[in-house]
Specification:
It is a single chain. Strand 5, helix 5 and strand 6 form a beta-alpha-beta unit. The chain has a single domain (about 15-275), classed as Dihydropteroate synthase-like (TIM Barrel, Alpha-Beta Barrel). The protein has an 8-stranded parallel sheet with strand order 6-5-4-3-2-1-8-7, with helices on one face. It is globular and about 45 Å long. It is an alpha/beta fold. The longest helix is centred in the first third of the chain and has 18 residues, at about 70-90. Helices cover about 40% and strands about 10% of the residues. The chain has helices at about 40-50, 70-90, 100-110, 130-135, 160-170, 195-200, 220-225, 235-245, 260-275, and strands at about 15-25, 55-60, 95-100, 115-120, 140, 180-185, 215, 250-255.
C-alpha cells in the first residue's frame, strides 16, 4: 500500500484520517483500550470501523512509561491469532502494526498488515529501516528519547522542536524511498508536559518534510496531569487537543475514542471551509 494512493501523502493539512488503537496487552496505561479475548477485540474493531476509523493500529507491547517490554516470541504469540482473525473478519481493513522489531514487522507484513508503526523511529532495531525501505512499506516514524522503561526520568532537550526535527532528518536519510514515511513527534515519549505542548504549538514546522503528520495524544498524561484528573476522565481534554492538532496540520489522529475524534475532524473541516 502506498500512502499517497491511500490519501496520506504530501503532508497536506486538509486530508485527515483516524487510526483506532487496539492493544493486546494486559498493562496499557488506559484500561479502556485493552482487548485480550477474541470476542473483545473483534467487537472493538467493528465498533471503531463503524464509528469512522480509517486504520486500526494493533499492538502487543505496552510502551507506557515504566513498562517492561515482553520478548519477541511473546509479542509474536500475542499477535498471531488476533491478526489472522481480524484480517479474516474484516478483509478490507487497513491494519497497522505497532512494533519496533523488524522480525515481527516482517512476519505480519507477509500476513497482510498495511502499515508498520515504530515507536523508536528505527533506532531500537537497526534492521527495521532497510526492511521497510526495500519493501516500500508505509511506515510511521516516531520520535522517542530513551526507552519506555526510563523515558520519563527527567527528559531533557535544549530545544525539543529542533531536536525532534533533527532526528527525523537523520532517520529519513537512511531511506532511498522516504515517500511512504509518516512522521510522529512522539507526544509523551521522553517529554515533559512543557515539551509536549511546545511540539503541539510548533507542529506546522514539521510540514517542511512534506510528509504526513500523525498526532498520538489520546488520553495521555499531557492532558490528564494538566487537568489533574486521570486517563479515564481525559476524553474532553483529548478532544480539545485533537482540535488544536488538526488546526496545526495533523493528518492522522491515533485515538482510543473514534466517534469523538470523528466529530472533531468534521467540525474543524467545516470551520476551515468557511470563507
Amino acid at each position: 500500500m502506498n500512502t499517497e494512493k491511500e490519501g496520506m501523502g504530501g503532508g497536506s493539512s486538509r486530508h485527515r484520517e483516524l487510526m483506532g488503537i487496539l492493544n493486546l496487552t494486559p498493562d496499557s496505561f488506559f484500561d479502556g483500550s485493552r482487548y485480550l479475548q477474541e470476542k473483545q477485540y473483534l467487537g472493538q474493531v467493528e465498533k471503531m470501523l463503524t464509528e469512522g476509523a480509517d486504520i486500526i493500529d494493533i499492538g502487543a507491547v505496552s510502551s507506557r512509561p515504566g513498562a517492561t517490554l515482553p520478548g519477541e516470541k511473546e509479542e509474536i504469540a500475542r499477535l498471531s491469532k488476533a491478526v489472522k482473525n481480524i484480517l479474516k473478519h474484516f478483509p478490507d481493513i487497513r491494519l497497522s502494526l505497532d512494533t519496533f522489531r523488524k522480525a515481527v514487522a516482517e512476519i505480519f507484513w507477509n500476513e497482510g498488515v498495511s502499515i508498520i508503526n515504530d515507536i523508536s523511529g528505527g533506532t531500537f532495531d537497526q534492521k527495521m529501516i532497510p526492511f521497510i525501505d526495500k519493501n516500500h512499506i508505509p511506515y510511521i516514524m516516531m520520535h522517542i528519547q530513551g526507552k519506555p522503561q526510563t523515558m520519563q526520568q527527567n527528559p531533557h532537550y535544549e530545544n525539543v522542536v529542533e531536536e525532534v526535527k533533527t532526528f527525523f532528518a537523520r532517520q529519513l536519510q537512511k531511506f532511498k524511498n522516504p515517500e511512504n514515511v509518516i512522521l510522529d513527534p512522539g507526544f509523551g515519549f521522553g517529554k515533559t508536559l512543557s515539551h509536549n505542548y511546545q511540539l503541539l504549538k510548533h507542529l506546522p514546522e514539521f510540514h517542511t518534510f512534506h510528509l504526513p503528520l500523525l498526532a498520538g495524544v489520546s488520553r495521555k498524561s499531557m492532558i490528564y496531569k494538566l487537568l489533574e484528573t486521570s486517563p479515564q476522565e481525559a476524553l474532553n481534554g483529548t478532544s480539545i487537543i485533537h482540535t488544536i492538532a488538526l488546526l496545526k496540520g495533523a493528518n492522522i489522529l491515533r485515538v482510543h475514542d473514534v466517534g469523538a475524534a470523528k466529530e472533531a475532524i468534521k467540525i474543524v473541516s467545516y470551520f476551515e471551509s468557511i470563507n
